[in-house]
Amino acid sequence: MDRSRLTYDVAVVGGGAAGLAAAISAARAGARTALIERYGFLGGMATASMLGTICGLYRTRATGPPEPLNPGFPEEWARRLVGMPGCGDPVRRGNVFVLPYAPFSFACLADDLTASTSGLHVSLHSTVVGVDVVARRIESLRVAMPEATRDIAPRAVVDATGDAIVARLAGAATDAAPAAERQLPSLVFALQNVERDALGPFRRVAVLRALAEAEREGRLPKGCSNIALGPSLNPGEVVCKLTLDGIAEERAAGDDFLTAAEREGRRRALAVAAFLLTRPGFAHAFVSHAAWQVGVRESRRIVGRYQLTRDDVLSGRTFPDATARGSWPIELWQEGQLGATYDYLSDGDSYDIPLRSLQARDVDNLFAAGRCMSASREALGSARVIGTCLATGEAVGRAAAALAEGTSAGASEPAP
């Protein structure tokens, strides 16, 4: 026996919302679980991209109070997060509710819950660099850790990387649109020392119009006006979300898409901040911090045993192997448009996410959750949000634990 090899029941790769839920749920189900995360903190897009609000936790409807959509871990996470510093209660925005949060508090809550979960081992600053597959099963993962490169031998694996990295390394079928056709990424950054009324009802519109005019006249780089600005819960702070269109056509020769997006996003953010200094209420404003990475809405997905479709979402379809529910509208951010388009389900309706959409077609002990689940681009526009990622993560964590124990992966109860 190779003594350098670490054995686990379940290995979860990626510590974002889906990976957190999967790892904690697998360990709570009795599986000895490893959680492997490339950053020095957990939370994925919720922390690294500073999103600031959680979508998909509550049923989408035009009236009434917030109604949790998925009981279990998503509801537990929301309840715990509300009590953290800088976080708040659910807020209605049209037909949907979102949960505001501070990214640092999200990461700290992730630390607390993972540290207190028996049977769960977390490896930060760690990356899977190789996968061994024998007879349609992953036998081992090669993991580059801060102090050594180790082999991990799991009985079941959850790919929660957002980019289907484990699936690709394992030779499983994956699907991805060309970079130029994917949903647009975004960069979030924060301004400090903004006067309280700088974004009042009329001033906000004036600021956005001024940005658009400056871009048209060439005084700002292309794309700087595709931005949303809103005060945070902290006095004097404004959070800016810059949607990064035009990256594919502007990237330098040899640059991959995300490298170009990171560089161009910071260039545009700096230009926007300099321009805003000329506007009333922003005279002393400055960029205090930006997200660790651009927010990715779409990349690579597994080819699963079923692909969730646009019709499944909008028709509120149910499945016999349902494991989670979604209710968020199909939200698409595309080239050539300001903001997003939204296709809503019928008022109060929801759809099921089947376990088959979370199971790799070609590798028998590989599951996926979050952004790399098996779904069409349109269906993913609904299912990729954090609240739904928490639900699919919990589902695959339990399924992976069941598979590792030798019981059926489909033994988890369907969503009620």
Helical/strand content category: alpha+beta
Strand content: 15-25%
- What's the Cα radius of gyration? 21 Å
Instruction: Give the terminus-to-terminus CA distance.
Output: 45 Å
List low-pLDDT spans: 410-416
Sheet of most strands = 7 strands, mixed
Helicity level: 25-40%
Structure commentary:
The protein has 416 residues and is of the alpha+beta class. It has helices at 17-28, 45-48, 73-82, 103-115, 165-169, 201-216, 247-250, 257-276, 310-314, 377-383, 386-405; strands at 5-13, 33-36, 53-55, 91-93, 96-100, 120-123, 127-134, 137-144, 149-159, 174-175, 186-192, 227-231, 238-243, 286-290, 301-302, 322-326, 330-332, 341-343, 351-354, 366-368. Strands 1, 2, 6, 7, 8, 9 and 20 form a seven-stranded mixed sheet that branches. The protein has a four-stranded antiparallel sheet with strand order 12-13-11-14, covered by helices on one side. It has a three-stranded antiparallel sheet with strand order 3-5-4. Helix 1 (17-28) packs parallel to helix 11. The longest helix is centred in the middle third of the chain and has 20 residues, at 257-276. The model is unreliable at 410-416 (pLDDT under 50).
